[in-house]
């Protein structure tokens, strides 16, 4: 069984607070894996450590068998590991489509390349990029909104836009931070269908999620964190009846 992500004893302290403490788990290539735990458990920090936005104090992170714990966020993204943020970070003054065309990572849209390549090839690349962006918007269900200003999207639609921006870079592994938080029930069903579609296209998903229905329906395996550490791992059914997990949620 190939592991696409291996987190080995990763730690990070903020002042006097040990936010992530010798955290250790793996994610199977091709899986949808859940990451749960009470508020403040260190889940979002762990995503920042894995994606290069925050440096670990110690520990190792392997992506596709390669060490990434010392690489920049930009280099990690180029390798095919992307994350979303708890609060979407869309560019408000632009349209939905423009938000996708401005994604600099990946094989398209590199400014240096447009300087080096002859004009026709630049235009070809722009056309390919445009087709790709339209395909990605269809995939997340925002095809009709391509020309809308991003600022006018609902909270849930902004999350879909953020997902679309990640997909432009052809990720192998996507880290999703609470994709359904603040999203209405109808859009949650839609988002789950979109996540299944993304998974079916070959992307491994690691999802921080509080909504147990989403976890139960989507995830083959769930990792539980509390106070910076992994306290349990198993199938959603195993996790639901685990005493330590219940204690952690009840503040025990
Ligand atoms: P979770 O996502 O599981 O709710 P976080 O990873 O956001 O938890 O936070 C874990 C702990 O680390 C919290 O106590 C939080 O306040 C703290 N923390 C997170 N980021 C920072 C930071 N940049 N500076 C200081 N403390 C932080
Ligand atoms: Mg969080």
UniProtKB/TrEMBL annotation:
Q: Please, which domain of life does this record's source organism belong to? A: Bacteria
Question: Would you tell me the Gene Ontology cellular component terms?
Answer: plasma membrane
Arranged from A to Z, the UniProt key words for this protein are:
ATP-binding, Nucleotide-binding, Transport
Q: Which GO terms describe its molecular function?
A: ATP binding; ATP hydrolysis activity
> Could you tell me which InterPro entries the record lists for this protein?
AAA+_ATPase, ABC_AA/LPS_Transport, ABC_transporter-like_ATP-bd, ABC_transporter-like_CS, BCA_ABC_TP_C, P-loop_NTPase
Q: Does the keyword Transport apply?
A: yes
Family to which the UniProt record says this protein belongs = Belongs to the ABC transporter superfamily.
Q: Which PANTHER family match?
A: CONSERVED COMPONENT OF ABC TRANSPORTER FOR NATURAL AMINO ACIDS, CONSERVED COMPONENT OF ABC TRANSPORTER FOR NATURAL AMINO ACIDS-RELATED
Query: What is the protein named?
Result: ABC transporter ATP-binding protein
Q: Organism, per UniProt? A: Sinorhizobium alkalisoli
């Amino acid at each position: 069984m190939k592991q696409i992500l291996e987190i080995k004893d990763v730690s990070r302290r903020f002042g006097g607070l040990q936010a992530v403490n010798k955290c250790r788990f793996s994610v199977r290539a091709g899986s949808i894996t859940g990451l749960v735990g009470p508020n403040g458990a260190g889940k979002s920090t762990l995503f920042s450590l894995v994606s290069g936005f925050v440096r670990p104090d110690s520990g190792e992170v392997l992506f596709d068998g390669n060490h990434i714990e010392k690489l920049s966020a930009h280099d990690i993204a180029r390798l095919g590991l992307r994350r979303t943020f708890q609060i979407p970070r869309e560019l408000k003054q632009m349209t939905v489509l423009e938000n996708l065309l401005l994604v600099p990572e990946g094989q398209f849209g590199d400014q240096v390349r447009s300087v080096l390549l002859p004009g026709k090839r630049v235009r070809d690349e722009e056309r390919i990029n445009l087709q790709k962006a339209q395909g990605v918007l269809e995939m997340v269900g925002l095809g009709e909104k391509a020309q809308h200003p991003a600022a006018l999207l609902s909270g849930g639609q902004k999350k879909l836009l953020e997902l679309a921006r990640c997909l432009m870079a052809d990720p192998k592994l996507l880290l999703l931070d609470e994709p359904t938080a603040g999203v209405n029930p109808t859009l949650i069903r839609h988002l789950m269908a979109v996540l299944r579609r993304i998974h079916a296209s070959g992307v491994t998903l690691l999802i921080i999620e509080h909504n147990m229905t989403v976890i139960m329906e989507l995830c083959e395996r769930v990792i539980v964190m509390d106070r910076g550490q992994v306290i349990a791992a198993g199938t959603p059914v195993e996790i639901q009846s685990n005493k330590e997990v219940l204690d952690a949620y009840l503040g025990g």
